[in-house]
Amino acid sequence: MKYKSQKVAYWFFGLCMLLFALQIIYGFIMGFARIGMDGLHDFIPFNTARAVHTNLLVVWLLTGFMGAAYYIIPEEAQRELISVKWAYVQLISLAVVGVLAIVGYHFNIWEGRKFLEIPRELDFLVVVNVLLFLGLILGTLFKAERRTTTALVLSMGLLFAALLYLPGMIWFDSQVTDSFFRWWVVHLWVEGVWELIMGGILSYLLIKLTGVDREVIEKWLYVIVGLTFLSGLLGTGHHYYYIGVNKIWLIVGGIFSALEPLAFLAMALFAVYMYRKGEKSHPNKIALFWTIGASIVSFIGAGLLGFAHTLPQTNIYTHGTLVTAMHGHYAFWGAYAMIVLAIISYALPNITGRKLYDSTRGHMAFWLSNIGMLGMTVAFGVAGVAQVYMERKMKMDFMDVQNEISIHFVVLLLCATLFTTGITLYILEFIKYGKPTDEALVKE
Ligand code: HEM
Ligand code: HEM
Ligand SMILES: [Fe+2]
User: Fold this and answer.
1) How far apart are CA 285 and CA 357, in angstroms?
2) How far is 293 from 20, CA to CA, in rounded Å?
3) Separation between Cα atoms, residue 444 and residue 3, nearest integer Å
4) Please, are residues 221 and 153 in contact by the beta-carbon 8 Å criterion?
5) Are 132 and 70 in contact (CB under 8 A)?
6) Best exposed site among 55, 295, 325, 431 by fewest CB in 10 Å?
7) DSSP state of 109
8) CA-to-CA distance for 88 and 396, rounded, in angstroms?
9) More confident call, 443 vs 55
10) Which atom of ligand 2 is nearest to the CA of 20?
11) C-alpha distance from residue 241 to each of 29, 161, 227, 238, 273 (Å)
């Protein structure tokens, strides 16, 4: 079944591609600055580039999640969105808030709280925007005859993500308290509610791509949701080790965060197992690659590389170094970037009516970006371990160490070029699909 209002998703995906491309540009600005080529320094110093790079990441992923919801919810609920016009209003206001924030950063209008740099005045606009989005999605579900587990998990994830944004908006004079609540947003997003969003999209894609019964797939989804909450909530403690709160968190954070990889392992097993079990072979192989890929790479990036520095005994050395950047890149890439690219690859042929899947360009996009990102992760990792050793073991000066490890950023830039070639191919493919058509979305 297809619904005309699913067309809205296309424009969210388009904005998503644009912001993704911009994010990569700021990554390069930082990479070059790291090897001494810092010509833009006066206008875009490293700290500005960093905030823009990470904020664009979060915004393009959220835009992708919203697009995914606008695509998936009508189909799961078996009805049109309650209002297409308001969905476009939401899209435009989202773009406006994003642009305002990013431009502001270049004029030093921001808060020095990593990942939550958006000034709190602007946060209110974010809230209005997200309320509008949730109103449309939950309203559609509310009016629907059918409410599937997949749709509920996806929208619960989106709703909780919105609620968890609020603790990050409260003003605290104490740095410790501020940091404590900052993690409610940053950690409980990526290691909690975003996992539900990922699980929901994954479940939808597996139902479509493998042909395995919904009942079977959704049973797994419950297990994943359970494992996520069991480990992720108290796992927040792995950010509380040395910030000045009660020492009980050393034990609680250590134990529960060590369990977090289980949820990602379950997702990887889930996807691979369903793929093998499935009898129907869907022609959209590219979407299948991204889907299975996301489940496996997220286990490596989030599960294994997260575990590598999550125990208090290791984190005391690695905290805030490039080891964190290594994990941050591969986890975000595997779990959230790849699942967004998966749903886009699946949705495009259906919205536009053009079946371009299985093209060489599409496969090249997948492999080049993945090999490039793996190389980047290794480069960050080697630089990070060297940094930990020199800075924290040999007690060398911070800046001297940064100088010593700059060679790894040459490698990083080479791998980033490979990565970017892959993403460029992906975006070219996106453009080639062209605009959505009403004919493509006629009810089957
Ligand atoms: C998809 C899921 C995940 C994503 C996107 C992700 C991403 C990130 C990012 C961006 C940071 C840096 C945050 C900051 O300093 O503000 C971080 C920190 C951290 N992550 Fe993850 N992560 C994920 C899952 C995990 C898991 C499952 C574990 C543990 C098993 C883990 C362990 C850690 C630890 C210990 C830190 C703190 C590093 C430090 O002290 O500097 N992460 N993560
Ligand atoms: C061509 C591509 C890219 C380059 C050259 C690049 C480079 C960088 C650099 C140099 C940093 C700062 C590390 C530091 O503090 O020294 C950074 C931070 C970060 N980047 Fe990228 N990046 C690229 C693409 C991406 C992509 C695609 C993602 C997500 C999927 C991503 C996610 C992040 C995150 C989460 C951080 C913050 C890490 C932390 O908190 O430690 N980057 N990037
Ligand atoms: Fe965390």
Assistant:
1) 7
2) 19
3) 9
4) yes
5) no
6) 431
7) -
8) 54
9) 55
10) 27
11) 32, 24, 23, 6, 37
| Ligand 1 nearest-atom number relative to CA 241 | 40
In the chain, how many domains are there?
1
Please tell me if the CB atom of residue 195 comes closer than 6 angstroms to any atom of ligand 1. no
DSSP at 73:
H
How many Cα atoms occupy the beta-carbon half-sphere of 16 within 13 Å?
28
Assign residue 115 a region: left if phi > 0, alpha if psi is -120 to 50, beta otherwise?
A: left
The atom of ligand 2 lying closest to the CA of 114 is: 40
> 203-221, pLDDT tens digit by residue?
999 999 999 999 999 999 9
Q: Give the pLDDT confidence score for residue 126 in this predicted structure.
A: 95
| Residue 430: both structure tokens together | 């996106």
Ligand that lies nearest to the alpha carbon of residue 58, given by its number in the listed order: 2
In angstroms, what CA-CA distances link 134 with 48, 71, 81, 128, 264? 31, 14, 12, 10, 26
pLDDT, tens digit, 9 for 90 and up, residues 128-142 = 999 999 999 999 999
User: Which CATH number goes with the domain that contains 270?
Assistant: 1.20.210.10
pLDDT tens digits, 305-327 = 999 999 999 999 999 999 999 99
Atom 28 of ligand 1, residue of closest alpha carbon: 306
* Ligand 2 pocket at CB < 6 A: 24, 27-28, 30-31, 34, 50, 53-54, 57, 324-325, 328-329, 332-333, 337, 416, 419-420
How many whole angstroms from 313 Cα to the centroid of ligand 3? 16
- Tell me the CA–centroid distance for residue 326 and ligand 1, in Å: 10
Token pair, residue 155, equals: 């929208």
Domain holding 422, by residue range, is 4-441
Q: Ligand 2 centre from 376 Cα, in Å?
A: 9
d(CA 115, CA 62): 14
Q: For residue 264, give the ligand 1 atom closest to its CA.
A: 27
Q: Which two tokens stand for residue 70?
A: 């606008």
**All residues at 6 or more sequence positions from 325 whose CB lies less than 8 Å from its CB, including other chains:** 380, 384
Half-sphere exposure of 171 (CA within 13 A, CB side): 6
At residue 367, what is the residue type? W
pLDDT at 280 over 80: no
